[in-house]
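Batch job 17 of 40 flagged for manual review because the log was empty.
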Amino acid sequence: MNQSSSVPPAAADPASAARIPRLSAALAQAGFWTGPVALLFIEDDVEIGSTIDHHLRAGFRKVVLCLPDDQVDCADLAGGDQAGVIAVRHDPRETGAVAAAVNALIEALPADTWVYYGFNAEYLFYPFCETRTLGEMLAFHAEERRDAMFACVVDLYPAASGASTNRLDRSNAWIDGAGYYSLPRPGPDGQPLERQVEIHGGLRWRFDHHVEAERRRIDRIALFRTQRGLRFLPDRRFSVAEYNTFACPWHHNLTACVLSLRAAKALRSNPASRQDSFRFDWSQSVRCDWSSRQLMDLGLMEPGQWF
């Protein structure tokens, strides 16, 4: 499934484009940054401002925007403090570009810096995020000797048929309230890997005939802590096996959710799936109320021991 939108990016202003550094140049100063850091991949013009604002309000100290060459600088779309927003040239639509950017950031940042990676029109939620800060949550997670946080990508979509091809009224967003399942992740010998699962559900499950097999998973290690030698792999796993687990061996840990419009955008924009996905809602659709309580009640994320 192509993850790009059918809406072309705005034509780049040559002067503006020249002012935006390449990723490698921008990361030359990353050794002095304090986390947490959000790395956002900008694929199109959909919900850029709301994505930046959401993560600034969440408490990320730096928000790095990876822009295609044909995208104008969008840092000024954020309503918050612009000092923490950095725009760089790095096209996320190119093969291997996401993994390359994540690995470059891992190498450039100080060890033990928390990083989130996501895309425009995606919004990170964690248990009790309305009343507890991101810093408090990550400090608790680290105290439980966890260096990464398992997340479930929850597809957002408009309920009514005839909605605009790729736009979403965020006040009328819907999610699937059922239909999610997990499978043990097999190791090289075919045996299940310890505490590793692959999650399926949402639009990628209901419209799986339009989605390549490698894109059907909705599990993501969305938050992780940097360390020397850590590598982010092309299949969205990490080179350190413990990073890919959903919990420690002793008890359940915190998990998170990423509310995402990407699947709906791709299904609506691709000619092969456009007619089939004309209406996304079904009998198990529920209105998204943009709360962590709803996501926990649906079993999509876990508070663990963080009461």
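Reviewer: the log was empty due to a logging misconfiguration, but the result itself is present. The chain has one domain: 14-297. Unflagging and moving on to job 18.
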